[in-house]
Amino acid sequence: MVNPGSSSQPPPVTAGSLSWKRCAGCGGKIADRFLLYAMDSYWHSRCLKCSCCQAQLGDIGTSCYTKSGMILCRNDYIRSAKRSE
Length: 85
What we know:
It is a single chain. By secondary structure, this protein is α+β, with helices and mostly antiparallel strands. 18% of the residues lie in helices and 14% in strands. The N terminus is likely disordered.
């Protein structure tokens, strides 16, 4: 996942260190084959969801957006921007 609002890159992850990563969504250990990095945290692919529509962001694209501390899919980010105008 790409977080356009952040320039930070995830720290390198090696196969042996995956068991030490904790999911920011559920708090569980990440031992999945894939993990996502957004808002300076690691996530299970099933736990990184849009704060508005609850879509699993790993399933709908390669980008996520942040606004007011919320993680949003592209559609909800655009909708929220239009409401702010």
